[in-house]
Write a structure and sequence with these properties.
Number of domains: 2
Distance between the termini: 131 Å
Low-confidence stretches: 1-12, 180-186
Strand content: under 5%
Radius of gyration: 53 Å
Largest sheet: none
């Protein structure tokens, strides 16, 4: 809806000439009227009153015109602002809906991972080699190693999923799932490997020495 003040301008254009003609007719003197100072003063006073009235009407019409122009300007400002904010809010809602969906998926994945890690941790903490029966040592050890492998496989799988949904700027990074023994072995020095080799061959050396002593004793006898 737009305000139209053109009718006011037409009214002004139609009213002003009529007022002027009325004033001219009022100032016209007939031949029968005697021109006296009193009559002239009266006519001048009436003309001044008419001019004052016309000025007031003109000021009122101009005031109404300014008000209508201001209303029209504010209405256009309203339409532009409403269209702008409607577009921005609509697009923002789409983005927020997508972010909320992705966040919900991340939260569900984090909850599932936390539950899985908690279960595997509880099982691993329940392994007690000291309580194993010596007759079932091989079976218990195999079962425990299988449990560790299952935990490692689950950890690797969940870690890959978490890396896929977490941001690249995240400072909290899960550790690698590689076996600790393999990683620790790569950090050993040459001297440590010599000691390990000596410890592994010590039983063979002992058996060899015992065999030599037995052979020497039998040969002497």
């Amino acid at each position: 809806m737009r305000f139209n003040w053109s009718g006011q301008n037409v009214l002004l254009r139609e009213t002003m000439p009529e007022r002027v003609r009325a004033m001219e007719q009022m100032l016209e003197l007939t031949e029968e009227d005697a021109v006296t100072p009193e009559l002239l003063d009266s006519q001048v006073q009436k003309a001044q009153e008419q001019l004052l009235q016309l000025r007031r009407q003109q000021e009122q019409i101009e005031k109404q015109k300014r008000e209508l122009e201001e209303l029209s300007r504010r209405q256009e400002e309203l339409e532009r602002g409403r269209a702008e904010m409607t577009d921005k809010l609509t697009r923002s809602l789409v983005v927020l809906e997508r972010e909320a969906y992705e966040t919900q998926k991340k939260l569900e994945q984090l909850r599932a991972t936390r539950e899985s890690f908690g279960q595997h941790l509880e099982i691993l903490e329940g392994i007690d080699p000291k309580g194993w029966n010596s007759s079932d040592l091989h079976r218990e050890l195999s079962r425990a190693l299988s449990t560790v492998d299952d935990a490692r496989a689950e950890f690797s799988q969940q870690r890959s999923r978490l890396q896929a949904i977490t941001t690249q700027d995240s400072e909290d990074v899960l550790p690698e799932a590689a076996p600790e023994m393999a990683r620790a072995g790569g950090d050993r020095s040459f001297g440590q490997w010599v000691l390990i080799g000596f410890a592994l061959t010590l039983p063979l050396i002992s058996v060899g020495l015992v065999g030599l002593l037995v052979f020497w004793w039998m040969a002497k006898g």
